[in-house]
Design brief:
The structure holds 2 protein chains of 2 kinds. Chain A is an alpha/beta fold. Helices cover about 50% and strands about 5% of the residues of chain A. Chain A has a 5-stranded parallel β-sheet. Chain B has 5 helices and 6 strands, in the order βαβαβαβαβαβ. Chain B has a 6-stranded parallel β-sheet with strand order 5-4-3-1-2-6, sandwiched between helices. The chains are: A alpha/beta, B alpha/beta. Chains A and B meet through helix 16 of A and helix 1 and helix 3 of B.
């Protein structure tokens, strides 16, 4: 970088500077992983820096500077707000409204949530509040009405097999070939299944099926975001994501799928937090680690080595107090995602701390994305913060620490490693809350600049309009389910059950039998309880990784 | 030290940052915490009886709170378990505060509540059990669900 004399001069100058300003220990701000953030970064903080080896060019190994050569000028990030309200009807209405406002992607929350039907007592009070409720394919048809399935990218939150099957069945009914569909399923392989090929592991069934039938479908989306939102550090978020990504890749290879066939469709899902500099470095470090890890796994094509990711902004950093402040927080989070080179973005709405966003709040989230894209200059330059000493030093630091964490996890038995991730995540929120309570982490409106609720309301800083739950949704949905069941062909429904049970017992790939089941209008509840009756619920989840996550 | 037995439950899986933070804080404050995980009201009653708890802490996130808190309070009455005190935490819209409190819930801890305050409330006002010897740190509280 420079010759010996100039390095000595620089060292001297930096020493002079540090003596001048001083940084008493304890006064410097810490990164989320506990390392002090220095007041100044210089070339001394990036020793042995090799531009081509560490950064390269956008779209080229190791992809530190971006996933594609042209960045956002070539392809804008997808505006993929999360939507899920009431029944399929209300969600479809909101979806169409947001598409009309410029939304370009589709991410439905609550798809296939619960392994029981809307008529089950357990559905009381939740149906339509935590996301959209779906029972049968008829609901999916309503949900997707007016949505051009051939052109829109669909993101399935969670990895419910029946819901995935419904999307494919609906495409088929409309005559859209599966090979033309673009989308993502939030699928990740966890330990489970039988034999070396993990037969009966339904996450792997999805990967196997997509690799064969859906060339443009991201069969894997590693949701590190939801772990981050429990309060873990940026380093842990990256490490957990890449550990799970590698586990998924290796497991898929164990089914006989070539790495080059599966790797390009492994995607990631990250958060974006308040620490903007650290977050930008995090995204860059994640790309670099993944590229090198995939290369080491034998993937040689760029498509296999490049990391692509969606960002949903932090929910943990949003506050119920003075909720309008969350608009500003969301903007900072969104900026971090864009400066970090996200392919797809969802900005949480300011009122999501209270309820499902109102239409106005959801629009503001979309507008936040549009203003960053169209009015600011941040999207015009690839990796615009790249080369800044602070960013490069943080990127290398996060990379090094994440690699250590990944090595620790990989040294554990599979199941133990996944449990360790949960355990770390479960403790993280406690530590973070203690920092807030003690004032070590400053939160405007919570532990500083606090306003009494009346004043908040008086000055107009509260959410004046909060989305209200409508109990009528459940009655409507139960009636709808009854009609669908009455009108379906009972013989076909019974045959689909028999086929599904047979496939399950034989540990065959379950995707096609589940598609047949949803096409016979079996409900998500019927499908999952049928499988649970064959195996026992816990066994189904733990051994065969059947995805029916109740609420996320 | 007198120990309070506290059952922590949730209205859904996921979004557990607050659930675990409060559980851990109560445990560190000397409360005996049982993690019940995601349970419907009938399930909460069952575990509360088995574990003989003094308190139920109900984390609300996904559900309309009245729809689950009302049946819980009713089941407590029906089963002669009115002595168990109930607090609710999490996302409770301000418009529901009065209804929830009228149902017999002692307190609602919404986001922004301090862990110390929650612990003080639980310890200060609960029916206390005879003292137990101090125990070594065993990590997170007992895990039943979630």
């Amino acid at each position: 970088m420079q010759n010996a004399t100039s390095r000595d001069n620089l060292t001297g100058a930096v020493e002079w500077y540090e003596n001048l300003v001083g940084t008493p220990v304890g006064q410097s701000r810490l990164t989320t992983y506990g390392a002090p953030l220095k007041p100044l970064y210089t070339p001394l903080d990036v020793p042995g820096f090799d531009y081509l080896a560490n950064l390269g060019l956008p779209g080229a190994f190791p992809f530190t500077r971006g996933s594609t050569p042209t960045g956002y000028r070539g392809k804008e990030w997808t505006r993929r707000q999360v939507i899920g309200v009431g029944t399929a009807e209300e969600t479809n209405e909101r979806l169409r409204y947001l598409f009309a406002q410029g939304q370009t992607g589709f991410s439905v929350c609550g798809m296939g949530y619960a392994p029981y039907e809307s008529s089950d007592p357990r559905a009381a009070g939740v149906l339509g509040r935590g996301g959209v409720w779906l029972d049968t394919l008829a609901d999916m048809q309503t949900l997707l009405e007016g949505v051009d399935m051939a052109s829109v990218t669909i993101n399935q939150i969670g990895a419910s097999l029946p819901v995935f099957a419904m999307i494919l069945a609906e495409a088929e009914r409309r005559g859209v070939p599966w090979a033309q569909l673009h989308g993502t399923i939030q699928n990740v392989v966890a330990p489970g299944g039988e034999g070396p090929a993990h037969r009966g592991n339904h996450a792997l069934d999805v990967i196997e099926f997509c690799t064969r039938e859906l060339p443009h479908w991201n069969h894997t989306s590693i949701s590190a975001r939801n772990i981050r939102d429990q309060g873990v550090s940026s380093v842990q978020e990256v490490a957990f994501a890449i550990f799970m990504g590698l586990y998924t890749a290796r497991a898929a290879c164990s089914r006989g799928l070539p790495i080059e066939a599966i790797a390009p469709r492994i995607t990631f899902f990250f958060s974006a937090e308040n620490e903007l500099l650290e977050e930008v470095a995090k995204f860059r470090a994640a790309r670099r680690i993944w590229a090198r890890a995939m290369r080491d796994l034998g993937a040689t094509s760029s498509r296999s080595q490049v990391m692509r990711f969606h960002v949903q902004t932090s929910a943990l950093s949003l506050t119920m107090q003075q909720p309008l402040n969350n608009i500003i927080r969301g903007t900072v989070h969104a900026l971090a995602a864009v400066l970090g080179g996200a392919q797809s973005l969802s900005v949480n709405s300011f009122d999501e701390v209270l309820a499902i966003p109102t239409e106005a709040a959801a629009t503001l989230s979309l507008r936040t994305q549009q203003i960053i894209a169209d009015e600011t200059d941040v999207a015009a330059v690839n990796d615009p913060l790249g080369g800044a000493y602070a960013i490069e030093a943080l990127t290398s630091q996060i990379e090094a620490l994440a690699l250590e964490e990944i090595a620790r996890l990989e040294a554990l038995p599979d199941r133990r490693a996944f449990e360790q991730i949960s355990a770390d995540a479960n403790m993280a929120g406690y530590r973070r809350q203690l920092q807030v309570d003690r004032g070590e982490r400053r939160v405007v409106g919570v532990n500083e600049h606090v306003l009494p609720e009346e004043v908040e309301e008086q000055v107009g800083l509260s959410a004046s309009d909060v989305f209200e739950y409508d109990p009528a949704w459940r009655e409507k949905q139960v009636a709808r389910l009854e009609t669908t069941k009455r009108e379906r062909d009972p013989v076909a429904a019974e045959a689909a059950k028999v086929r599904l049970a047979g496939a399950y017992r034989a540990r065959e790939n379950l995707v096609e039998p589940v598609i047949a089941a949803v096409k016979a209008y079996l409900s998500i509840g019927e499908i999952t309880s049928l499988l649970a009756s064959l195996q026992g619920w816990d066994e189904l989840k733990n051994r065969h990784c059947f995805y029916t996550n109740e609420f996320y | 030290m007198d120990r309070v037995r506290f059952l922590m439950v949730a209205d859904s899986r996921g979004h557990t940052a607050g659930y675990y933070a409060v559980s851990r804080a109560l445990r560190d404050a000397g409360v005996e915490v049982v993690l019940g995980g995601f349970l419907p009201p009938a399930g909460i009653i069952e575990v509360a009886a088995q574990e003989d708890v003094d308190f139920i802490g109900y984390r609300i996130m996904d559900r309309e709170p009245v729809s689950v808190v009302a049946p819980l309070m009713e089941l407590l009455r029906e089963n002669g378990m009115e002595h168990i005190r109930v607090i609710v935490g999490g996302i409770v819209p301000p418009s529901r505060t009065k209804t929830i409190c009228d149902l017999g819930v002692e307190k609602i801890f919404r986001p922004g509540s301090r862990l110390e305050d929650i612990a003080a409330f639980v310890k200060g006002e609960a029916v206390v059990l005879p003292s137990e010897p101090a125990r070594e740190d065993l990590g997170m509280p007992v895990r039943l669900g979630i």
